[in-house]
Specification:
It contains 5 helices and 9 strands. By secondary structure, it is α/β, with parallel strands linked by helices. The chain has a single domain, classed as Rossmann fold, CATH 3.40.50.2020. The strands form 2 sheets. Strands 5-6-4-3-7-8-9 form a 7-stranded mixed beta sheet, with helices on both faces. A two-stranded antiparallel ribbon has the order 1-2. Helix 4 links the parallel strand 3 and strand 4. Helix 1 crosses helix 3 and helix 3 packs across helix 4.
């Protein structure tokens, strides 16, 4: 068993499930216990870092873009480990300055995401990170913001992909996930 496989098993055991959250009929996969455990959090970042270095060794990653809310929790640590910049993708009204925005549907309501337009220079290479890929709407919206400023998405990276929801079908770049469910 590789180190990454061993780490994945440990990470999986830390997830907590909440039924009927945030809406009835949904099962919420909570990865916050991973963040609360420094050893496990280091293993999470190490797993992503190792994957990205192996896959994009010669191709420069310029930025990690973290999606609100949980991509903002581990994205900066991953960016720091890789020695690249970090860009937050936030809900409307959370970022100062000129922002690109996109409206999208999430579960049973519309949301608006924003990203500062000067945060990612034209022609940059970006990896988008978030905790869970479900239907793909949130990740698609984040990718659209990145494309609006003329940057390239190398990959979407998730801690967990809910395979039965086929969210990867909406995305325009490859995905990587530590766990699948």
């Amino acid at each position: 068993m590789s180190i990454s496989e061993s780490y994945a098993k440990e990470i999986k055991t830390a997830f907590r499930q909440f039924t009927d959250f945030p809406i009835e009929g949904e099962q919420f996969e909570d990865f916050l216990p991973i963040i609360g455990n420094p050893t496990l959090f280091q293993k999470l970042v190490h797993t992503f870092k190792t994957h990205l270095e192996e896959k994009f060794g010669k191709e420069k990653i310029d930025f990690i873009a973290g999606i609100e809310a949980r991509g903002l929790l581990f994205g900066p640590s991953l960016a720091l480990a890789l020695g690249v910049g970090f860009v937050p993708i936030r809900r409307v009204g959370k970022l100062p300055g000129e922002c690109a925005s996109i409206t999208f549907t999430k579960l049973d309501h519309e949301e608006i995401f924003e990203m500062q337009v000067e945060a990612i220079p034209f022609d940059s290479n970006v990896v988008v990170v978030d905790d869970v890929l479900a239907t793909g709407g949130t990740a698609y919206a984040a990718g659209d913001l990145i494309r609006q400023v003329g940057a390239h998405i190398l990959e979407y990276d998730f801690v967990l992909v809910l395979d039965s929801l086929h969210g990867e079908e909406k995305l325009s770049a490859p995905i990587f996930s530590i766990l699948h469910s």
